[in-house]
Amino acid sequence: MSLKYIKINNFRGLDTFSASISDGMLIIVGQNDVGKSSALKAIQIFLEDGRPALDDFPKFNQDAMIEIEIHFNVSGLEELKHENLLKLKQIYRKDSNKVNVQKQLYSKTYKPTEEELDSYKSLKSIGEKLGVEFPTRKPSNADEIEDLKKRVIAEVDSLEPYGWNELQKEDWIQVEKLLPEVLFVPAAQDHDNEQKMTSDSSVFGKLFRVGIRNWLKVDQSSKSAINTIEGQVKSINSKILKIVEDKLKEQTPLIEELKQELEPLDVSKGFTFTMFVKDGQGIDTPLSQRGSGLQRSVLIAILRAQNEINDLITKMSHESQQENNSEDIKPTLYIIEEPEAFLHLAAQKELFYSLKDLSEKSGQVFITTHSTLFMDEADMQDIVLLTRQNGKTISLQHIPEEQIHTTLGELRVSELLTGKVCCIVEGVSDKQVFQNWIKKLGFDPKRLGIHFITMDGCANAEYYANADILIDFQIPFVLILDRDKHEDGRDPDRIKNRIEDKHRWLRGKERIRILDGELENYFVLEAVSNVLRIPIELIDPAEYDNDPKEAMAIARHRAEEAGKVGVRVYNEKRDSKKIAELMTKEDILVRDDIKEVIKMLIELSGEEFIDDSQDDVA
């Protein structure tokens, strides 16, 4: 059984959280205190059939119900499935100082039989559930009863063919046997207790116990020993029970017999240990007395070892199946908060791929992380971003069509998710120039979270502006086009209109900016002259304003004819950055369209843009 979809409403600070799981991994990212751990805790509560604490209900709405919905891919239980998935929901309600839970199954809507509708008692029960108002007492008039019946039938007929229905107890018993075993590794741990096997809740205890338990199920000699021990335990227990029963009969003669239902013997619960570390001098020290880094490293080593342990168990399981003597092993869901804590980058990368292998071979792995390395190494569809909008926490996820990742140049996923705004430009030279211009105005684009995407020409503008990843993660972006005389057939105005027609929310926001000329039109001639080593008097301002690239070529020929040495041919990628670096703050602010583009980027990043150029003039 594996999880395919999760939806959580009103749990702690989470307003709504949803995630589709394509394979075995789910990576939840977001700023601190945005609800990442809450999402994992809600999943654990559902799968372990627990109940939220009273403090888990949202503070902003004390009457709100907590809803956790999970869809499963599972073998069997065909009669409970909808569209090949088992869809379950648990609804939790506060009732004074306790929490009530209702289990629901998305299934075919039950339609009452004629016999049920003919019985007034069942008719009333069905009708009240559907919102039909019934009198306190049964009407004596048959016409009144018939009218109530018609109203109930009308409500029944209006029901959708499928919907959320109460999950029967016997069905839940079947489902519960197949639910994955949850191994929850919190970020903040009690290291004294987590290294002990004596506590069911300890991290080390759970990680070791699940391996021991599954190993014992497939190892034939161990199973034989357990059967012997279990037989002896039952025999001793029966003798003790008989003595207790005799004493009870003396006290209460009406009692005929006292019985017990024994659960299967779990030897792993009786296995206890405390972790020690031996140093180079041969001294054993309890791990709880060593540094947090070493403690976390041992925990990560146990996680990484799960793959090898599970491979051995799988091999033994295949051998047991050949002998028709194998027990079913429950799948495992590893829920881990910030697994990268205390690890350097190389160790983080090794850990990430160990967890990825674990998700592919031995179960599913759900994690929260702040690691940019984890974000960059992960498959895009496995990442869920939690963010706050208008005071509410929501989740965002990018599911590529046909599982094809959207490519955004050299921009990393971590930059996209941790940044504030994307600026989409035509080429590398545009990126370098705008970065330098922003710095000249006293801002650091990296620090502000302004990331640039190069689209390799105006012709690709619609592809990048329509990139699903920008839309799915709701990342603000500004698209910059220019009027390049050297690209035939391009029409930036038509491109802008087509993009705004597709994304109506862009209209009026001026997120698509068309420069009044080419990038080179915004260079000052003094800087051009300096970088290309062409005397400024040989560059005709009118020619440059009309066609800057052609004007630079003509000026170069003039310089060469005049015998000037070291004159350079303009190379856009190489020289545009150098020219931009030589421009002053005043050179940039004097061009209104450039100033407005930079102002928009700064303000979208959350900073204030102050234009002091007018003060300088005054």
TrEMBL record:
<dbReference type="InterPro" id="IPR051396">
    <property type="entry name" value="Bact_Antivir_Def_Nuclease"/>
</dbReference>
<dbReference type="InterPro" id="IPR041685">
    <property type="entry name" value="AAA_GajA/Old/RecF-like"/>
</dbReference>
<dbReference type="InterPro" id="IPR027417">
    <property type="entry name" value="P-loop_NTPase"/>
</dbReference>
<dbReference type="Pfam" id="PF13175">
    <property type="entry name" value="AAA_15"/>
</dbReference>
<feature type="domain" description="OLD protein-like TOPRIM">
    <location>
        <begin position="422"/>
        <end position="484"/>
    </location>
</feature>
<feature type="domain" description="Endonuclease GajA/Old nuclease/RecF-like AAA">
    <location>
        <begin position="1"/>
        <end position="372"/>
    </location>
</feature>
<dbReference type="InterPro" id="IPR034139">
    <property type="entry name" value="TOPRIM_OLD"/>
</dbReference>
<protein>
    <submittedName>
        <fullName>Uncharacterized protein</fullName>
    </submittedName>
</protein>
<dbReference type="Pfam" id="PF20469">
    <property type="entry name" value="OLD-like_TOPRIM"/>
</dbReference>
